[in-house]
Each structure stands twice: as structure tokens, then as C-alpha cells.
């Protein structure tokens, strides 16, 4: 079944980044007074979450020996090396951010990076919209601004990417490892393969083939060492109903399993303030998921797929739905969450003037003279976070962690750390990984959750009410590439969380391994739930469909993890 996602949890393939220095905020040998205000704020967040210094630090570290408790290496030497024994550094980030180089954006690159740094983001991807203007001048013009932001915010990794108009489909983040060819490769890609640039947005076999060709182009650039790495993540996949199941599978399988370019989609879209009711908010749809089917939509998708569910995309939120159908094939496909930040809710900045088509950008933003509550977005890290398990603080380590599926996501800082391991015999695997065991081996899932470490942007400390374990069988590759159900996936165990501070440790016995399965996690503040799409036996208390005009994102918080596979032989 080609399990490229997870054999290697006992060894890491380093790409020259093991010596990268830790960000100053993480490095306890750097005194507080030597930090900049942003670094001090970052350190405060880490400290409140219990992710700094000695002792248990769930989610910040995975110790390299089977069954060992996660713990922070406290020696200055190991801190500076950016390593935690054989474990991972969990880095929060956002891969979907717009600036004044987008026709519907307004902020400077440095504004988004400053806000992200303030909100504890370790890595960010600038993704201005693919368009004829961006392909012609924007992709080059934004680069000096990105380089300047990298220099000004050394503790934040700033990738250059773009939001690809996927031919025949929705949008996707495409980004590359920084280097001397980052602009030329992105420019070539956008010019040759962007749906808007090539007038290839409608659903057709030829346009679908162009999308696959674009991913192959990126793979080729990596092979030819033009860039060190490239990744694609599909954005807001269910929003318009135009990302059909066979297209998603075609992107996933477009490039060799050993080095996939398309690795996942947004489990939760941006624009999370969109559902805040009037008069305090825009009174629209959470995620701006307010569409209906069109001629290009996949006809089999139900009407409810065009809405978010607890702020998450229907493809991810449905237990036994499209995401589970991909996982049941035994192939990697990961979820993320991010801001899609264009115009921020309750901000006072207004877009600058200037001729966008002539200049490839708007002028710098100006003071608008009012607090704008009609906007649907948050700044990076204000609400949505994607946490990546990296084996160092470097661009390569973040990209490796994303490709490996060492990812969990949360809204509103519902939790501050997550350590997940599936163990059996003398082996274990974590998120995105596969545990290979002999048939009949007893297998245990162990989860340590670090609860919210302090108030979120809305000013309160969220409470985690429940954690769900979701399990499904690996049934192999589907014959019908438009399959979007996984009949064996269901919630197999729910844990009520009866504490509000510190850490929670949960254990679930999977029993003796007799067939290939995967498990994934979900957690909620318990404020809104409903019986899932596939009935009570499958999902007794899942996310409820979000009501257009009345979906306050702060009163409905969830976290989701990527899966771990168990593969007996």
C-alpha cells in the first residue's frame, strides 16, 4: 500500500539543519532582558504553556526511546543545537497569508510577520494570489519585503509562496524552501500552471491534467536542485464543491511517494470571524463558506458540505467522510488550519491607494479612522494554529515535519501541547507515522494534552471538555477515485476532561493488532455539538453545522490531530 508516511520514527534524515540555533525565546541560556518585546512575549507564551524549562512539556518534545515520558532537555548545549534529544520541536505556524501584493489584500509583509511573531508563530508562508499581475511583477516585487522581514524577525521563518488557482479546482498554497531560485521557480510555476493565468479554472479533463503537470514541474525543480523543497496544500477544499475526490487523489499521487508535493488540505479554513453575528461582526458565514453548487461543482457532494462544521471543513469534520476515505487507503494526506488573512476583524487600517495592476501591489495601508467590524479575518496566530513537529529550527525541518504529517491544529488556543504515541512491542510511532508490529501484538494509544496555558486573543482561558479517539480500517486503494466515504471510521472512545489546568494523560487500548488501522484525535470545548452526518453509532457528539449569521468562533473551539497507522504483518 505504499506507506511512505511513517517508517522512520527511530531515525531522522537530516538535511544539514541539525545545527540551527534555537530562536532566542526558546533558548533558556538567553536572559529575559536580552530579548526584544516580541521575543519576550513569545517566551511568556511558552512559559505559561509549560513548554519551557525542565519537567514535563507535553507537545514540545517526543523523547526518542519507547515509552519515555516527554521532557525538555534543559542543558544549554542541547537547547542551542535546536534538538531535543531524538525528539521534535513543536513549531506553530500559518501557511495562508495575504499582503498588499494581493488584489484583495492590504497589509505589508512586515505587518503580517510582526503580528504573527506577536501571536507566537514560528513559521509563516506569504501566499499572495496567483494572477496575471502577480505572475508578471508581484512575485518578484514581494521578495525583497520577505527578505527584509526575515532579517527583522529572525525568530520567525518566513517562506515565500503563492496561492495557486488550481486548474479545474479551488485554491492551494504552494511554497518553496528559500534560496537563490525561490522567485524564478515560483514565477515559472505561476506563469505555466496557474488556472487564472492560463484561463483554466473550469472543470475539464485538460485543466485537471494541467494541475497534475504543475505538481510534476515542482517535483522536477526539487529533483534538479533548483530549490531544496516544495510543497502544496489545498485551501478551503469544500467551499465551492469543485475539488472532486478524484482530483484530490490525483494531486496526492502526482509525484513519487518518497517526495510528495501535494500533501494535504486545510482541515479548517481561514476567515473564522465571518460568522460573528451583527452588530459586533460581519454576520456572514464562518470561513466565508456561504456557497451553493455551480456547474463546476462535484454533483455528489451534499448541500451541507458547503458550510463549515465547528469551524472545520466538511471533508475533515465528517467522521467517515472524505478525509477518512483518503486515510483508509493507507496513504498520507494531512490537515492544517490557518488564517487566510486579508482584512482583519476590528482593525483600524485601511487599504492604501495606488494602481494595483500597474504596480503589482497597493500602497502601504493607512489609518482608516474607524474600527472595522465588517471583516472576517484574524491575524496569523490570533485564532488558528498549525503545530508542526520539526527536528530543528529551520525551513527544511518545518517542510520535513509537514510532509511527515507531524501536525496537529487548534482554534482559540484550546490546548497548548499534544503528545500522541501508539506503541506495541518495543516500538512506537507518533502523528503521521506508522507502527509496524507482528500480528497479535498488543497496541496502546497514549495521549498527553497540555491544557490551555493562558488567555487567548479574546481574553479568556479556554477549557477542554472532551477528547475523542477516531479509528478506521485501512482497506487499501479505492477502485472508484470519487469515493468520499469510509464506512469503518467511527468514534471509538470519548474522554471527559475534568480539569482546567496542567496536563491530561489518556490511554486507549487498541487490543491485539489483527488488521491495519489508523487512529486520529479530536477535542472540543463542549459548547456546541450534534450527532454526526453518519449517525449516532459513528459520531454521537461531533461538531454542529455552523449557522450563517450566528457562528461566534470563540464559543466553539476544537483541536484535531493527524493520524497514526498501525500495520501488523
A few lines on this structure:
Helix content is 20%, strand content 24%.
Structure description:
This protein is an alpha+beta fold and 569 residues long. It has helices at residues 37-48, 76-80, 109-118, 132-152, 182-193, 205-223, 245-252, 314-317, 322-327, 356-359, 395-404, and strands at residues 89-97, 123-129, 157-165, 171-176, 230-234, 262-268, 334-337, 347-350, 366-372, 384-390, 407-411, 415-424, 427-429, 434-437, 442-451, 466-473, 490-496, 503-512, 517-524, 558-561, 564-568. It has a 15-stranded mixed β-sheet that branches. Helix 5 (182-193) packs antiparallel against helix 6 (205-223).
Q: Residue-averaged pLDDT, rounded? A: 90
Shape: globular
Total strands: the figure is 21
| Structural class determined from secondary elements | alpha+beta
Low-confidence stretches at least 5 residues in length (pLDDT < 50)?
Answer: 1-19, 53-86
Q: What is the first-to-last residue Cα distance?
A: 13 Å
DSSP summary: helix tally:
11
Computed over alpha carbons, the radius of gyration is 22 Å
What is the makeup of the main sheet?
15 strands, mixed
The percent range for helix content is 10-25%
How much beta, percentage-wise? Answer: 15-25%
Architecture blueprint of SSEs:
Elements: H1 37-48, H2 76-80, E1 89-97, H3 109-118, E2 123-129, H4 132-152, E3 157-165, E4 171-176, H5 182-193, H6 205-223, E5 230-234, H7 245-252, E6 262-268, H8 314-317, H9 322-327, E7 334-337, E8 347-350, H10 356-359, E9 366-372, E10 384-390, H11 395-404, E11 407-411, E12 415-424, E13 427-429, E14 434-437, E15 442-451, E16 466-473, E17 490-496, E18 503-512, E19 517-524, E20 558-561, E21 564-568
Parallel strand pairs: 1-2, 2-3, 5-6, 6-7, 14-21
Antiparallel strand pairs: 1-10, 3-4, 4-5, 8-9, 10-11, 11-20, 12-13, 12-15, 15-18, 16-17, 16-19, 19-20, 19-21
Amino acid at each position: 500500500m505504499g506507506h511512505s508516511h511513517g517508517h522512520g520514527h527511530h531515525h531522522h534524515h537530516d538535511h544539514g539543519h541539525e545545527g540551527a540555533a534555537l530562536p532566542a525565546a526558546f533558548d533558556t541560556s538567553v536572559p529575559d532582558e536580552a530579548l526584544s518585546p516580541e521575543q519576550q512575549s513569545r517566551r511568556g507564551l511558552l512559559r505559561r504553556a509549560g513548554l519551557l524549562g525542565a519537567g514535563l512539556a507535553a507537545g514540545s518534545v517526543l523523547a526518542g526511546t519507547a515509552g519515555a515520558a516527554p521532557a525538555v532537555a534543559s542543558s544549554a548545549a542541547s537547547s542551542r543545537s535546536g534538538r531535543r534529544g531524538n525528539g521534535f520541536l513543536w513549531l506553530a505556524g500559518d501557511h495562508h497569508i495575504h499582503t498588499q501584493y494581493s488584489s484583495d489584500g492590504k497589509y505589508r509583509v512586515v505587518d503580517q510577520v510582526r503580528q504573527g511573531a506577536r501571536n507566537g508563530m514560528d513559521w509563516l508562508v506569504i501566499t499572495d494570489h496567483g494572477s496575471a499581475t502577480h505572475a508578471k511583477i508581484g512575485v518578484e516585487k514581494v521578495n525583497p519585503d520577505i527578505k527584509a522581514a526575515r532579517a527583522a524577525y529572525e525568530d520567525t521563518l518566513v517562506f515565500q509562496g503563492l496561492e495557486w488557482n488550481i486548474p479545474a479546482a479551488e485554491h492551494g498554497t504552494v511554497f518553496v524552501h528559500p534560496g537563490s531560485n525561490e522567485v524564478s521557480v515560483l514565477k515559472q510555476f505561476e506563469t505555466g500552471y496557474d488556472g487564472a493565468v492560463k484561463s483554466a479554472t473550469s472543470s475539464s479533463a485538460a485543466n485537471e491534467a494541467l494541475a497534475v503537470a504543475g505538481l510534476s514541474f515542482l517535483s522536477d525543480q526539487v529533483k534538479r536542485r533548483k530549490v531544496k523543497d516544495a510543497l502544496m496544500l489545498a485551501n478551503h477544499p469544500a467551499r465551492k464543491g469543485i475539488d472532486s475526490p478524484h482530483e484530490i487523489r490525483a494531486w496526492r499521487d502526482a509525484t513519487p511517494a518518497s517526495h510528495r508535493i501535494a500533501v494535504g488540505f486545510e482541515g479548517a479554513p481561514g476567515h473564522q470571524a465571518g460568522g460573528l453575528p451583527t452588530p459586533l461582526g460581519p454576520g456572514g458565514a464562518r470561513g466565508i463558506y456561504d456557497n451553493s453548487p455551480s456547474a463546476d461543482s462535484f454533483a455528489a457532494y451534499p448541500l451541507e458540505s458547503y458550510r463549515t462544521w465547528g469551524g472545520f471543513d466538511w471533508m475533515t469534520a465528517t467522521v467517515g467522510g472524505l478525509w477518512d476515505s483518503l486515510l483508509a487507503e493507507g496513504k498520507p494526506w494531512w490537515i492544517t488550519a490557518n488564517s487566510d488573512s486579508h482584512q482583519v476583524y476590528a482593525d483600524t487600517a485601511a487599504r492604501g491607494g495606488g494602481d494595483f495592476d500597474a504596480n503589482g501591489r497597493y500602497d502601504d495601508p493607512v489609518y482608516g479612522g474607524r474600527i472595522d467590524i465588517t471583516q472576517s479575518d484574524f491575524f496569523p496566530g490570533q485564532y488558528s494554529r498549525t503545530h508542526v513537529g520539526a527536528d530543528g529550527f529551520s525551513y527544511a525541518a518545518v517542510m520535513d515535519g509537514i510532509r511527515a504529517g507531524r501536525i496537529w491544529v487548534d482554534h482559540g488556543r484550546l490546548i497548548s501541547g499534544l503528545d500522541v504515541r501508539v506503541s506495541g512491542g518495543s516500538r512506537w510511532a507518533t502523528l503521521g507515522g506508522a507502527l509496524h508490529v507482528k500480528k497479535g501484538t498488543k497496541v496502546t494509544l497514549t495521549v498527553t494534552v497540555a491544557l490551555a496555558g493562558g488567555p487567548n486573543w479574546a481574553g479568556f482561558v479556554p477549557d477542554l471538555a472532551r477528547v475523542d479517539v477516531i479509528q478506521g480500517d485501512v482497506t487499501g486503494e479505492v477502485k472508484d477515485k470519487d469515493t468520499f466515504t469510509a464506512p469503518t471510521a467511527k468514534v471509538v472512545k470519548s474522554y471527559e476532561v475534568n480539569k482546567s489546568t496542567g496536563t491530561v494523560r489518556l490511554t486507549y487500548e487498541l487490543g491485539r493488532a489483527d488488521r491495519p488501522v489508523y487512529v486520529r484525535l479530536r477535542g472540543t470545548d463542549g459548547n456546541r455539538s450534534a450527532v454526526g452526518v453518519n449517525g449516532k453509532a459513528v459520531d454521537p457528539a461531533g461538531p454542529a453545522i455552523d449557522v450563517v449569521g450566528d457562528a461566534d468562533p470563540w464559543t466553539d473551539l476544537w483541536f484535531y490531530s493527524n493520524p497514526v497507522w498501525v500495520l501488523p504483518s
